[in-house]
């Protein structure tokens, strides 16, 4: 049996193995001491009972999040399933009997950049969309902006961003689900949406961290979702590029898509606490979350982190900064790493992306 993380987004340290058992440890982000994400490959274990022990899981960024959690596995990086997983407070143990010679294991379903490249190729061939480079990451990887719909005066400007935190791969599955539906030419929801609005999508804000297998940070060790108030062209050019594009186009609605380690359902966070927060924004948030909850049984309109004190909203955070700057509906969508009652996984994340467009359309007339 051979274990390695020589993959796009791969992350694990092999400390030893014997037969079908392997001792592993979490690898820290490339420029920060954060450990939580794992994605690795096992080869040569077909038909054998494999036991994979991450012996330092108790030292992760969110160790208690491993309670009640089951890891994801895939033979082809397309179809993912949960495997028996046990956490004793120190060690996270994955047990599985692979049916094929090669199997991948991930904290959540991996989403490598070649999958994004294939998606961008489909988008670029559509008459509904175009792909624009709006900047580059710390290591020079392109930041892609997908524009759907014709830009005319008076149309609403709707933004979706994914993977500020590279280990929150559910964001990419959500974005893919939304994009595939937006490209469909026989869908009344998206036909209406693109007639009334322009949709701007940044599918992966943090390509360096996504390639390196980081959990939270970019190649400079920055948490991009704490860079929005004053992004650095040297250390957080990814956010600076997205902000600049937003200033040029305008924003009427912003969905920033993330993952939550502890929750067992998806939920949304608004801008309560921002200095400019108003009753109008509260009603917009309530309309959107209730609409999405009606459409998706795995989304809760009740869960949140609790509002910041009035006027104390952290404007370093993407949805807070955008909401304050553009006085618009601006929300962070959080999705679970855990499967929860709805059996959450990449397919469900993509489904939530599709459903979110219906909630966006229902909110459209009230945005301004």
UniProtKB/TrEMBL annotation:
InterPro entries: Cytosolic_carboxypeptidase, Pepdidase_M14_N, Peptidase_M14. Its cofactor is Zn(2+). The active site is at 334 (proton donor/acceptor). Signal peptide: none annotated. One of its GO terms (molecular function) is carboxypeptidase activity. Keywords: Carboxypeptidase, Hydrolase, Protease. Pfam families: Pepdidase_M14_N, Peptidase_M14. Residues 109-364 form the Peptidase M14 domain. SMART domains: Zn_pept. Belongs to the peptidase M14 family. This is M14-type cytosolic carboxypeptidase.
